[in-house]
Amino acid sequence: MSDDNKETAGSQGPRGEGEPRERVIGTPSPARDKALLAEDDISAPAGSGEQLDEQSARRAERTVALLFLLAFAASVAFIAYYIGWSGRNGGMHGILRAQESNFWLGGTMAAAFLLLAAGVTIWVRRLMTSKPITQERHELTTDAETRAAFTQDFLEGAADSGLTKRPLLRRTLLLAAAPLGLAPLVLLRDLGPLPEKRLRHTHWGEAVEKAKAEGKKGVRLVVDGTHKPLRVSDFATPGSMITVLPEGMEEDVPEHDVLTETAKAVTILINVPESQFKPAEGRENWHVNGIVAYSKVCTHVGCPAALYEQTTHHILCPCHQSTFDATDAAKVIFGPAARPLPQLPLSVEDGYLVATSDFPEPIGPSFWERG
Amino acid sequence: MSDTTAPKAIEGSLGFIDERLGSTSFLKRNVKKVFPDHWSFMLGEIALYSFIILLLTGTFLTLWFKPSMIEVVYDGSYDQLKGVKMSEAYASTLHISFDVRGGLLMRQIHHWAAILFMASILAHMLRVFFTGAYRKPRELNWLIGITMFILGMLEGLFGYSLPDDLLSGTGLRITQGVLEAIPVVGTYGYMFLFGGEFPGTDIVPRMYMLHILLIPGIILALVTAHMMIMWHQKHTAMPVKNQTEKQVYGYPFYPVFMAKTGAYFLFTFGVLALMGAFFQINPIWLFGPYDPGAISAGSQPDWYMGVLEGSLRLMPGWETNLWGHTISWNVLIPAAIPLGIIFGGAMAWPFLEQWVTGDRRQHHVNDRPRNAPVRTGIGMAAVTFYGLMWLAGANDVIAEKFHVSLFATTWFFRVTIFVGPVIAYIVTKRICLGLQRKDADTLGHGVESGIITMSPDGKFAERHEPAKEEERAKLLAKENARPAAPAKDAQGIPAPSSKGPMGHLRARLNRAWNIDDIPVEEHGHDNGHGEHAEVEEGTESKESKELRS
């Protein structure tokens, strides 16, 4: 059927032998090239069949061999580059050498794999003479006889063991097994401490207590990174935001805990124009001329709420876009967070900004016991 | 059979093993095992090979990586971070990238392979779903596959959290926040995982153990089971000629499939090496070490976690506070519900479908997606749901690139995750039915030949030719809807399966499954009917050839 489709008849009558073929005028039938008239149902190996055309096979063989040779060359180049160039002048150093080495090692490696893969593909498609074959699909289900025989064996075994006949044996065995399954779980208890009240306070509390014990009003706020204490006059431009920590944290906290304490105590200080600032009820004196401090840890899932939009006074958490209003006690105005950012009470002492107590509520994401 | 002898070396080693294991009968049975051919059967192979590449490159990385949170001062060859305090984990990752030859390449191949691993599993699962290849007897492999995808998500999350750079630390922080939100046991889970408060010093070594030992071990075991079950049950086949429920048609494992799949492994490795060499991924040296107070905008996880990120972003800030206890719906719902629906639904689906259709037979020949419109529609609804949620995970990037309001993108996704799947279901089902009609038409009327003929009374008609035999075999593979069993027998006694609310529900769902079905039926080659009947009448193929000009 497909053979006569290929014919390009030009005249009505049957063509004479040797008559030159005329070209088709008009639209060729779409049926020829549409997949609707299905191609051979199985695609590979395409070139091969029972019989290979020896000439084209030899051509294919040469192509495959060439690809294999190139793959060989690429692998050799990989090794040569590694030994000869990558490690020159005492090994790899810095970003430029890393980049160069990455390009060459990766490039030769990719070339080796891809050339080999291309070679094998051509080999399969052009040189292998396997024919498609048919195999039976066996019934997966076991026949009833075997199943019955197994059931009998199983019940027999159960009876022989006495497990079915002796309930005391059975029940005590189960009893013995139950705690044995639980025991490994108990072993995991020492993975970590119990939560207790850990999540309810931050290092600000300890730092304020320490400062008060020394007769001061509160603990100074230092800039994250430089540890420089902040004067009110340093932070006079409305619209700016800065990240602060309690003074002396680096010294007071054991070294391996610094990061953990920072993760809780990290606070943002914002200078909101005083005219627009609406202090929350009961917190009228927690700000200093519109300078206000909120926990930087987002109340959604704890990312740092690090973006501040000066004109709208919005604090935005870049992770999930919870948006808080800095002028209005950091209330949520958009996004998935449910609670405002906790506020840190501020005051002034000797011209420096100080915190007068810990955050009044747990910072960060909500948890079951939070209340 | 015994008159053929292999070369001595092969005969010798085969004999050695056979005398000890009796393995030749196994080899004889399997050496020519037939593998049906279809391009989509390669998707699972990509996943398998990516996994092998992950094991190889991962092992290389463990030789230098130090899973430790001990603070060190960096003194490697990356000048920009010299003298910076950082964890040993981050410092050793920098060391692998800049001071170990081929280290950066292995890191990048490892990361790309992880991304490809998850992507190819997803593509493979979609192929299996839309062709109905999960049907009996293959439900177990379907469940194993979903389990591997979930484990892969966890494995990936732990993997990209290991370097302790700024981005990975942010991901961990979110993980911690989500963990904390679990009612009753949340804070305990958090303390136990991190060995205290976030970030502490235990989390990296713990994740390292899970990432290089426990989870890959489980995945490896599941991969093995997956392959053995597939081998034992034989591969499904697409409905083409010669493929039936009783036989499988294709090329033999040895040598054709073996060579093809070997080449495929090389292609996968080659492409990943190419990507590792030329496409930068996760440049941790640009992010800097983790600092709990810092973050960069556009913080996105690897793609397979995007759906969780998106659902977290879309949720409104709901929280309840009752009797001194807080429940964060704004975290719990997005963390559990969307993926719960998708994975739970996918796991239950084969059994649900069996219950609705009442089809408990074994299937080895796949459905064409159009021939199961309800399944295909629901699949596309799930794809839409997942896809929108996934896109929402990058709503800040979308807002920035397309200059739209961030809040508008959030609201767009909040609405479309509900509306989108419904539209997708309706559209997909209609497309499937349209394609079914076309198939029925092809069988009934043949294929348009492009030849217009004029009948003696001046009527124009297009000649239709019968479809090729292969095409007809494909179209006829469709199983027409079987009428539902009557709810009541002749005596008016309701069938047990149709009683009660569940029975009614089942009957309704069964009707919905079958109602639109467009049956295909065998037509003779020559007796067409309809508008082209008069053309074909009395015309033989030879004449038709002449008519064409």
Automatic annotation (TrEMBL), chain A:
<keyword id="KW-1003">Cell membrane</keyword>
<keyword id="KW-0812">Transmembrane</keyword>
<keyword id="KW-0479">Metal-binding</keyword>
<comment type="function">
    <text>Iron-sulfur subunit of the cytochrome bc1 complex, an essential component of the respiratory electron transport chain required for ATP synthesis. The bc1 complex catalyzes the oxidation of menaquinol and the reduction of cytochrome c in the respiratory chain. The bc1 complex operates through a Q-cycle mechanism that couples electron transfer to generation of the proton gradient that drives ATP synthesis.</text>
</comment>
<keyword id="KW-1015">Disulfide bond</keyword>
<keyword id="KW-0408">Iron</keyword>
<keyword id="KW-0472">Membrane</keyword>
<keyword id="KW-0560">Oxidoreductase</keyword>
<feature type="domain" description="Rieske">
    <location>
        <begin position="291"/>
        <end position="355"/>
    </location>
</feature>
<dbReference type="Pfam" id="PF19297">
    <property type="entry name" value="QcrA_N"/>
</dbReference>
<dbReference type="InterPro" id="IPR017941">
    <property type="entry name" value="Rieske_2Fe-2S"/>
</dbReference>
<dbReference type="InterPro" id="IPR014349">
    <property type="entry name" value="Rieske_Fe-S_prot"/>
</dbReference>
<keyword id="KW-0411">Iron-sulfur</keyword>
<keyword id="KW-0679">Respiratory chain</keyword>
<feature type="transmembrane region" description="Helical">
    <location>
        <begin position="64"/>
        <end position="83"/>
    </location>
</feature>
<dbReference type="Pfam" id="PF00355">
    <property type="entry name" value="Rieske"/>
</dbReference>
<keyword id="KW-0249">Electron transport</keyword>
<keyword id="KW-0001">2Fe-2S</keyword>
<comment type="similarity">
    <text>Belongs to the Rieske iron-sulfur protein family.</text>
</comment>
<dbReference type="InterPro" id="IPR036922">
    <property type="entry name" value="Rieske_2Fe-2S_sf"/>
</dbReference>
<feature type="transmembrane region" description="Helical">
    <location>
        <begin position="103"/>
        <end position="124"/>
    </location>
</feature>
<feature type="region of interest" description="Disordered">
    <location>
        <begin position="1"/>
        <end position="55"/>
    </location>
</feature>
UniProtKB/TrEMBL annotation, chain B:
<keyword id="KW-1133">Transmembrane helix</keyword>
<keyword id="KW-0472">Membrane</keyword>
<feature type="transmembrane region" description="Helical">
    <location>
        <begin position="109"/>
        <end position="130"/>
    </location>
</feature>
<feature type="transmembrane region" description="Helical">
    <location>
        <begin position="46"/>
        <end position="65"/>
    </location>
</feature>
<feature type="region of interest" description="Disordered">
    <location>
        <begin position="477"/>
        <end position="549"/>
    </location>
</feature>
<feature type="domain" description="Cytochrome b/b6 N-terminal region profile">
    <location>
        <begin position="13"/>
        <end position="239"/>
    </location>
</feature>
<feature type="transmembrane region" description="Helical">
    <location>
        <begin position="411"/>
        <end position="428"/>
    </location>
</feature>
<keyword id="KW-0812">Transmembrane</keyword>
<dbReference type="InterPro" id="IPR036150">
    <property type="entry name" value="Cyt_b/b6_C_sf"/>
</dbReference>
<feature type="transmembrane region" description="Helical">
    <location>
        <begin position="372"/>
        <end position="391"/>
    </location>
</feature>
<dbReference type="Pfam" id="PF13631">
    <property type="entry name" value="Cytochrom_B_N_2"/>
</dbReference>
<feature type="transmembrane region" description="Helical">
    <location>
        <begin position="208"/>
        <end position="231"/>
    </location>
</feature>
<dbReference type="InterPro" id="IPR016174">
    <property type="entry name" value="Di-haem_cyt_TM"/>
</dbReference>
<protein>
    <recommendedName>
        <fullName>Cytochrome bc1 complex cytochrome b subunit</fullName>
        <ecNumber>7.1.1.8</ecNumber>
    </recommendedName>
</protein>
<feature type="transmembrane region" description="Helical">
    <location>
        <begin position="263"/>
        <end position="281"/>
    </location>
</feature>
<feature type="transmembrane region" description="Helical">
    <location>
        <begin position="142"/>
        <end position="162"/>
    </location>
</feature>
<feature type="transmembrane region" description="Helical">
    <location>
        <begin position="331"/>
        <end position="352"/>
    </location>
</feature>
<dbReference type="InterPro" id="IPR027387">
    <property type="entry name" value="Cytb/b6-like_sf"/>
</dbReference>
<feature type="compositionally biased region" description="Basic and acidic residues">
    <location>
        <begin position="520"/>
        <end position="549"/>
    </location>
</feature>
<dbReference type="InterPro" id="IPR005797">
    <property type="entry name" value="Cyt_b/b6_N"/>
</dbReference>
